[in-house]
What does this fold into?
Amino acid sequence: GEREVRRHAARAIAKAAGRSHDVPTDVLSALAGALKDDAKEVRRSAAKAIGEIAAVNELPPGVLLCLGDAREDSEAEVRNLVARAIWKAARSTDIPEAMRASLGLL
It folds into this structure.
């Protein structure tokens, strides 16, 4: 169904993005938006993808904000992936002081 398609899309984007050092902003925005998807699989794929991207790319503030919100996800697995993505982002992105608290980095 549609949910399956979205999950495959998120996973495909993750694979491509994880190998790239220059991920287009609209791709990052799409993944950040997917963190709010009603399907757990889509949120999980998006969080995983953002984590892979964060390891080699700076994340824009909008994506960091979405990660901050996603820390409250109803699924523990998604929360764990989000926490890992934030941890990776903290190493590759100069995160503004004002955003650190909402990301749990203080």
Summary: The chain has six helices and no strands. Residues 71 and 106 are 15 Å apart (CA to CA).
